[in-house]
DNA sequence: TCCATTGACGTTTTT
DNA sequence: CGTCAATGGA
C-alpha cells in the first residue's frame, strides 16, 4: 500500500515516531513541534499500514477539545469513520466504563456526576452537620484533600493517620463524604478515575477482556497525568499492550493539581523496551523567541533535555516594556495592538496572557476604551451557571430521586417554605437512618416528624417530582426540559432578580431547552446502555461547555498562562512580569519545585508566540488596594539581553532628575498620538544626540514636543518642528 | 424571607 | 480595591 500520504509531510523525527516498531514509545515533543500531528499520523499508520483494528485503539487526552480535535483530524486523514475508535478524555472513558459495568463497579445504575461546585457544597454541609468548626476545616481544603487522595488511589482505610489528629480528621471527612456519595449515587471527577481503576483491579476477567481488546494505547499530554491515570494506563497495558505517549516535561504546569512529571521518567522504568524520541524542530516561532525560551528553561534542573530549533528566520527581537504602573502597562499593550491593527493585521492574531485572572480587568478596560473587540478565556461556563444547574437538578431528580445534592439544590428553589429548620430535620433523619434525603422525607411524613405546614410543603415538592417523572417519562428531552422549567416555576423565581441578571438567566434557560432539543444520544453512550436523559446530564457535567459561547469573531484573546497552553498566536503579550506576581510569591516561598513550574509556565507563554513576543512589567502595581513595588521578574534576567529590545529604557534609573513621572506618561495616550510622526517606543536618530527611543509626547501642532531617551545623551525634550528626528532603521 | 451591611480573603483549573 | 459569603435587622 502507498503510505506516502502518511509520511511525506513529516520530518525525520516525526516519521520515526509514527512508524516506530518498539513496543512502547515515549515522544518528547517540544512546543510547536507537531505532537498532535504525530499522534494522528500514528493512529492512521496503525490502521492503514499495520492493519490494526480501529476497535483495538484507545487514544486518551485531557480535554474534550483535544479529544474532539484528534477525532476530527483523524477522520480527515483516514477518510473513514472514526466511530469505532476509542478517543476521549480520561474522565470520559472512565465514565463510559462505569456506565457499562456499573454493577461490577458497585454503583447505582443511575449514578450522577458531581462537579466540583457540587462537591464543595456537599462537603460544606457535611462538615457543618458534623459540628466541626468551618474555619478550622474549610470545605475547600477538604475538597482538595479528598481529591488529592483519590488522585493517588487512596481510600480512607489505606491512609495512615494513627498519630496525626489532623490527618485523622480529614480522613473522617473523607469517610463521611464517601458514605454520602454512595447513598446518593454520586460520583465526583476524581472518583470516576479511581473507580475505573478499581473496576479492573477487582474484576480480573473484565480487565483481561479490555487488555485483549485494546492493544494499542496513545496518550496525549503525558506530563499532565496524575498517579491514578498513570496506574490506569499501566494496568490496561499489562504485558501485552503497546503504549505510545506524547508529552513535554518542560510544559508540565499542573503539578499543583496532582500531575506527576515524574511519570515521564517512570514510563521508561516501568515499561520494557521503551524507545525515546525527541521532537525538537519547531514550526511555530521565530529563532529569537525560541532562543529566548531555550535559555530560560535551561535554568531548570531535572529536565530530560531538549532544545528547540527552527529552520525559519530569527525575526524581530523580543520587546520589553517597563511600565510605570499597571495602567501604563495596559495602555502600552493596547497601543501596540492598535499599531498591529493599523498594519492591517487581525485582532484574533493577538493574545494577552498573564499569571492571575484578576489581571484581565485593566486590559479589558483599555481595550473597551479603544473599541477593540476582545474575548476573555475562563470564567463561568454554560453548564456551571446557577440557573442551568437548578434546572438540571430537577432532571436529575427525575432520573434518580436519591440524588441528595440535587434535592438540596432545588427543594427550596423557588421558595416553597422549606427553610433551614425543616431541612435540618430531614438531614438528621437521613443521617440517623443512613437513607437518602428522599427516603428520609418519606419517613418524616409517615411518622409526622414535622409541623403540618412543613410536611405539606415537602409532600407537595415530592409530589411534583413524582408527577414530572410519570408525566414526562416518554417525552422528548427538549420537552422534558421545558416541562421541568415550567412546572418548577423557575422562571418566575428568577424574575424577582434585578432585571439585567434576570434577563440573562431566562435567556440561558431558553438556551438550555434548545440544547436539550438539539441533543442527540451519541452512539457510544447508547452502546453503554445510557438513556438520552442520562447521557445529556453526563455531558453537561463532563463538558461544561465553552468558556464563552459567543465572540468567535475577530477579537483579541485574553487568558491566563495556564489556559494559553496548546494555543498559538502571531503576537503575544506576557504582562505582569514582576517578581512576586510571576513567579508568584507563593511558589517562590513554597518548596518542591514550584519555582521550576513557574519557569515552565513562562516557557509555555513564550512559546505561544509565532512572530512577535512582547513582555512587560510594572514598577508599581496597585494590588489589593495598596501599591506595591516589585523587581522585574527574575525570568527576564534569564533571557539573553541581546534577544531583547527594551522599548523604553528605564529612565528613572538613568535620569533620576527628569521629574515626576506620572503626568509624563499620562499624556501619551493613543488619541493624542494619532497623526504624530512617531510612535511611543519607536527608535529614532538625532543628528547630534544619536540613537534614542521616543518616550513621551506633549502639546500639539507646532508646539508639539517629544521626549526622547538617547542612549548616549540621556532623556531630552525636543520641539518636533525643529528637532529633525529620523526614524531609525 | 429578603435585602443590606459587614468581614475575610485574594495563584493557576479541567474533568 | 473587589468579590463573595455570612450575618443580622426589617
Write up what this structure looks like.
The chain is built from 33 helices and 21 strands. The protein has 729 residues and is α/β, with parallel strands linked by helices. Strands 9, 10, 11, 12, 13, 14, 15 and 16 form an eight-stranded mixed sheet that branches. The chain has a six-stranded parallel sheet with strand order 3-2-6-7-1-8, with helices on both faces. A hairpin with a 3-residue loop joins strand 17 (683-686) and strand 18. Helix 16 (386-399) crosses helix 21 (477-488) and helix 18 (420-433) crosses helix 19. It is globular and about 100 Å long. The protein binds a DNA duplex (15 and 10 nucleotides) through residues 62-64, 89-92, 95, 113, 115-116, 188-190, 192-193, 224, 253-254, 256-257, 355-358, 361, 378, 415, 417, 419, 496, 541-544, 560-563, 581, 584-587, 597, 601, 622-626.
Unreliable spans: 650-675
Helix/sheet category:
alpha/beta
- The global form is globular
Query: How many alpha or pi helices?
Result: 33
What's the pLDDT, averaged over the residues? 88
Oligomer: single chain
Beta-strand proportion:
15-25%
CA-atom Rg in angstroms: 29 Å
Distance N to C terminus: 55 Å
Kindly state the percentage of residues in helix: 40-55%
Number of strands: 21
Strand count, sense and closure of the main sheet? 8 strands, mixed
